[in-house]
Specification:
Helix 6 runs parallel beside helix 7. The chain contains eight helices and eleven strands. It folds into two domains: about 80 residues, Fe-S cluster assembly (FSCA) (GMP Synthetase, Chain A, domain 3, 2-Layer Sandwich); about 170 residues, Rossmann fold (3-Layer(aba) Sandwich). The longest helix is centred in the middle third of the chain and has 14 residues. The protein has a six-stranded mixed beta sheet with strand order 8-9-5-10-4-11. It is about 30% helix and about 20% strand. With about 280 residues, it is α/β, with parallel strands linked by helices. About 5% of the residues have low confidence.
């Protein structure tokens, strides 16, 4: 019978990715204490947080990678949790220093906080702003279906629900799992291959959001900078109706963005949609 070695186990686990970070669990230093005794492989996978919602998925992926190895009779998988220092190191490796994030910058305005990654000249992400003049014309439905279609075509896709007062993207996507925070870095929930972030994850169900311009500005800034988007091919932004504070902020944050205006055939809806298009 072939005898498997710890190095072979590590190499078999290298293609296994963390479901949220989309990086190899080996490269993220999550695999520890690999040992083999009479064909039984024992190891520890260190999770990013206690109570990780995707623990079962990680367990299935690890078992699926190790069990087919020649000479493996069983797998004994234990779970640990990263320390605060390890989470801080992971955050810095993936997302830069937390001291540079928008959320920790005392001054207002993205120029004095963390740089918006999608506004940089070398960014590969194509930002799409989905807007409308009036509410109720199907803007969020278009955003959701376009995002899912792009993901189904093999693209990596993120969605920012910028309709702060009338958020609906999480419900439409079925992304009901809350974001995970790793040392001030937010991991957005994913559904149908689409990652999304929304103010709906941070306010109690049924509670209205009553914010003025500066708070809206800061929330959008954090959605763009403190969330780990991992350079998606497309970033769709579900805009609120009209041409208010959020539209102004996003025009500053994402100057390279393309704007798509959704309307219905009625003259009244089209007239208001033209105003939204004129702002773009």
């Amino acid at each position: 019978m072939s005898v498997v070695t710890p190095d072979q186990v590590i190499e078999a686990l290298r293609p296994v990715q963390d479901p949220e970070l989309h990086r190899s669990i080996v490269d993220l230093n999550m695999v520890r204490d690999v040992s083999i005794n009479d064909g039984v492989v024992a190891l520890t996978v260190t999770l990013t947080i206690a109570g990780c919602p995707l623990r079962n998925e990680i367990q299935n992926r690890v078992n699926g990678a190790i069990r087919p190895l020649p000479g493996v009779r069983d797998v004994q998988l234990n779970f640990g949790v990263m320390t605060d220092d390890e989470r801080a190191a992971l955050r810095e490796k993936l997302h830069g220093s937390p001291a540079a994030s928008a959320g920790s910058a005392p001054a207002q305005g993205h120029a004095q906080g963390r740089a918006i990654p999608f506004a940089q000249p070398g960014s590969k992400t194509r930002p799409l702003l989905i807007s409308s003049g009036k509410g109720g014309v199907g803007k969020s439905s278009v955003t959701t279906n376009l995002a899912v279609a792009l993901a189904a075509a093999g693209h990596s896709v993120g969605v920012v629900d910028a309709d702060i007062y009338g958020y609906s993207i999480p419900r439409m996507l079925g992304a009901d799992r809350e974001p995970v925070a790793i040392d001030q870095m937010l991991l957005p929930p994913e559904s149908y291959g689409v990652r999304c972030i929304s103010i709906g994850y941070f306010v109690p169900d049924g509670q209205a959001v009553v914010w003025r311009g500066p708070m809206l500005h800061k929330a959008l800034e954090q959605f763009l900078t403190d969330v780990f988007w991992d350079e998606p091919d497309f970033l769709l932004v579900d805009m609120p109706p009209g041409t208010g504070d959020i539209a102004l902020s996003l025009s500053q944050y994402l100057p390279r963005a393309e704007v798509y205006v959704v309307t219905t055939p009625q003259d009244a809806a089209q007239k208001v949609a033209r105003l939204s298009a004129a702002m773009a």
